[in-house]
Amino acid sequence: MTATTDQGRLAGPLSVSVANLCRRLQPQVSARTAAGFAEVLRRLGAPLQVAVAGRIKSGKSTLVNALIGRRVAPTDVGECTRLVTRFQYGTVDRIEVVFAGGHKQVLPFAPDGSIPAELGVDISKVSHIEAYLTSAVLQDMTVIDTPGLGSLDAASVSRTEQLLGAARAEEGGDELDETSRNAVAGAEAVLYVVTQGVRADDQQALAAFTAATASREAGPVNAIAVLNKADTIPPESVEGSDGDVWKAASILAEKQGLLLKPRVADVLPVIGLIAESAESGNFTSADADALRQLAALDDATLETMLMAADIFTSWDCDVPAGTRLRLLEKLDLYGIRRAIDAIRADGTITAGALRRLLLAASGLDAVRARLNKVFAARADGIKAAAALASVTALAHASGDPAERQRVHDAIEVLLAKPEAHQLRLLEALTLVVAGAVDMPEDLAEEVLRVGSNADIDEQLGLPGASRPELAAHALERAGWWRSFASFGATPAQSRVAHVVHRAYFLIWQQLR
Ligand SMILES: Nc1nc2c(ncn2[C@@H]2O[C@H](COP(=O)(O)OP(=O)(O)O)[C@@H](O)[C@H]2O)c(=O)[nH]1
Ligand SMILES: [Mg+2]
Questions:
Q1: What DSSP state is assigned to residue 108?
Q2: Domain segments of the chain: what residues?
Q3: Closest atom of ligand 1 relative to the 58 alpha carbon
Q4: Hey, CA dihedral for 327, 328, 334, 335, is it positive or negative?
């Protein structure tokens, strides 16, 4: 087995086995299906495709900039915010407009280094934008900024759905028909952005995303959510917050986690705007100087100014109104207050230290850590499962029963191997989470825990336990699930139970 191919770097052993399956089957299927398999192979070798989804104006593009560490995605208004943009790693910074027919046109960056807000092309003919950037973060994942599901702008929604479900294939894509493209495209993971109050249509938007991603359901394995704009939550609106904004945000995030469960693993509070300013170099020493000037004002004046944005910019004060507006755009009132508090606590604080303090206050580090834990660690399983789903869909779309059977048999052989068991587990988990297989709640929780954790002690729900304890527990649960599979389970439950039994058994073997 080899971990690299001409398609690029594969995420791990599961991706390798699915890639091998595709290559073996290619000569045995129709030209069109083979072209689809070629596209599946290309995607297997590419970084994990993470879509940033959520309602319009929830701060998706701002968060994308924070993650990439550069203000490159246009925020707020402009026609670009209505288009899907894929940010991927490149050795030279470059932007391309991709038209509906597949034709591409290179675009210059705007003077500030961002994607121009107005493209100067007929936007109704544009499929999406590709941005190639040297950002290190993009070596491990391709970030897809979407205009917003659940928005009122029908054209934006349809562009979002189209890209999530049916991205244009790259070179050679013309050999692929619509169905095949649907089957091989689609984001593999979701970063879901919500703001205060998950409304019914947020749930709908998540469901729409699920329907639009051809390959995989959004679930705790491949979806995480953030509660963005945490700075704008009035703490008095949240019981138990003790008047603290971040505490209020954390309490709300936890509540929303329960609402969105089990579609997402959990919800993390974040302040995308402050994260963007701190990470992209947009917070400058001139900004720090202006904040120092404001920190020197008397308490009463400052308190009045920080009451509302329009008072802050219009109040009579030595700091020019334009400078204040700039601060507001970069940090909003909460960030300004945090910075001023820090300056008042330590008059010698440097601009660099202020920037770090703001970054820490934004919650971005926790989001990054979770992205790494959830996505990077599971990229192999997520990508392999998505690829297998595409392979299955391609075989179905071929319309040839013999071909379908051949592909089906090959997949069965692959899934029967012990090293591919993780894929079965992911599949079982998805069935349970999506409600396709009914499970008593405690058992569903257990399937979720075993299937969506990377570390054995967490899979077993015994963090930090000793090896013998873990082994004994794994064996006990293996036995329990085997008897559940044989007695007392419905046929669908029984299929899931067999998979869970085997997962515990393999864990036990590993620990022995
Ligand atoms: N106060 C505050 N404003 C934010 C935050 N994140 C984004 N915004 C603002 O919300 C507006 C919409 O952001 P944008 O990223 O364009 O939203 P999108 O439509 O979801 O891509 C912009 O004016 C941002 O500056 C945040 O964490 N706090
Ligand atoms: Mg946007």
A1: P
A2: 7-271+365-374, 283-361, 422-511
A3: 20
A4: negative
What is the residue whose two structure tokens read 């920037």? 355
Kind of pairing between the strands at 223-227 and 94-99: unpaired
Instruction: For residue 95, list its beta bridge partners.
Output: 107, 131
Nearest to 376 by CA among 162, 148, 140, 34: 140
Cα–Cα distance between 124 and 28 in angstroms, integer? 40
CATH of 7-271+365-374 given 3.30.428.10, 3.30.390.50, 1.10.3720.10, 3.40.50.300: 3.40.50.300
Full-model pTM:
0.84
Residue 275 CA to ligand 1 centre (angstroms): 11
Q: What is the pLDDT of residues 185-232, one digit of tens each?
A: 567 788 889 898 766 666 666 665 555 443 445 566 678 899 999 999
Could you give the CA distance from residue 42 to residue 88 in angstroms, rounded to a whole number? 14
Six token digits for residue 66? 């924070």
pLDDT digits (tens, 9 = 90+) for 487-512: 878 999 999 999 999 999 999 999 98
Residues with a CB atom less than 6 Å from ligand 1: 56-62, 75-76, 81, 148, 228-229, 231-232, 271-273, 332
Tell me the CA–centroid distance for residue 146 and ligand 2, in Å: 6
Q: Is 450 exposed, middle or buried (0-12, 13-18, 19+ CB in 10 A)?
A: buried
CA of 54 to the centre of ligand 1 (A): 12
Q: Which atom of ligand 1 is found nearest the CA of 276? A: 6
Residue 18: phi and psi, rounded to 5, are -70, -40
Cβ pair 269, 230 in contact under 8 A = yes
DSSP track, 214-253: SS----TTTEEEEE--GGG--GGGSTT-TT-HHHHHHHHH
Q: Count CB-CB contacts under 10 A for residue 27.
A: 7
Distance CA 367, CA 340 (A): 25
**Ligand 2 centroid, distance to 287 Cα (angstroms):** 25
